[in-house]
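Appendix B, Record 12. Input sequence as logged:
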Amino acid sequence: MLIRLLEQSQDLLARQAAEIGARLLSGNDALLLTGLFGASKAPMLSEISRQAGRPLLVMTSSSAEAESLAKDLQFFSREPVGFLPEREEDPEIRRQRIACLAGLAAGELRLAVASIQATLERLPPPNALMDAAIPLRAHGQIPRDKLLRALETAGYRQAHQVTDRGEYSLRGNLLDLFPPTGDAPVRAEFFGDELLSLREFDPASQRSVRPLQEMIALPVVEVPLGDDACEAAIRALRAAEQTQGGQVSFEMTKALEDRRPFPGMDAYLPYFYPETADLLQYVAPDAVLVLADPGGLEARVRDFAERCLACGVRRGKSDASRTSRLTPRATSECACTLAINAPLLDRTDLKAKLSLRPRINLEEFARTN
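Logged structural output:
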């Protein structure tokens, strides 16, 4: 009897999801879906994606809620599920962000979850991130000096011995590297410019684990350190010195000149690219956007617009105790650096972008008039 009830429940879920999928295909009007609580959201959303044949990007009010839903979706889904954390300096958070953004840009993730803040955070253009990825194939040809430059551009750090993600080491004809999304470092053996072999190895014992035919080493940083981007950042920061006052630190300028990452570099994103991107530019054009608790999302967006995300100061207030090496003029709301000016997508731009996509408004309770 229990098995029969489960089969009936699954059939009902499939029929409901198929109906929703058909309505999504008919236009860009938002659909209202109510009555789903907690983990019950995951099987329905997974089935909607399957029935509609479209990717889904789910937006939640908080990062904790997004992570929890991503785990639920992974349990019910037959495909990998992406989770985009909000930007932090933590290496694990950076790894998760790179993996999710690259998976979306490459079309490999059909289900992804992000908080509204992570959705609004400005990003490098998708092509800038993906162009910094390094494809390697056994028995292929790649000049080692070109490969080393590519690793530096992608933010890899040279080390005596590779032990952590984001490191590389060159010893004779052996190049070791540890991609940010890899489970183990990889050893590439060269003969001149020919890549003879690729194999994962144990960093403790240095013994081979398994051979690889090919791999893609994703960048370690969200802002690849290419020549054009770094030169653009230097010019833009120096121009900001003239118009906004303050002084760019020597350490920052030196890091850009040497094509090295520096702490907080992601916050300076608008200086690297004439036009930044956002998460909606990483997802497929036919992706369905799911707004979990639209009212809560709207409240969060309003809150972002009213305060500085770095120090929490509301508009119209100031905090004279904060100092920085590059400070806005006195008319600014707070004394934070120019790095955090306009860190998020504008609220009006968000609404315009949402209106162009098929959407599902996910609410736990039905609206009452």
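Confidence is low (pLDDT under 50) at residues 1-8, 317-333.
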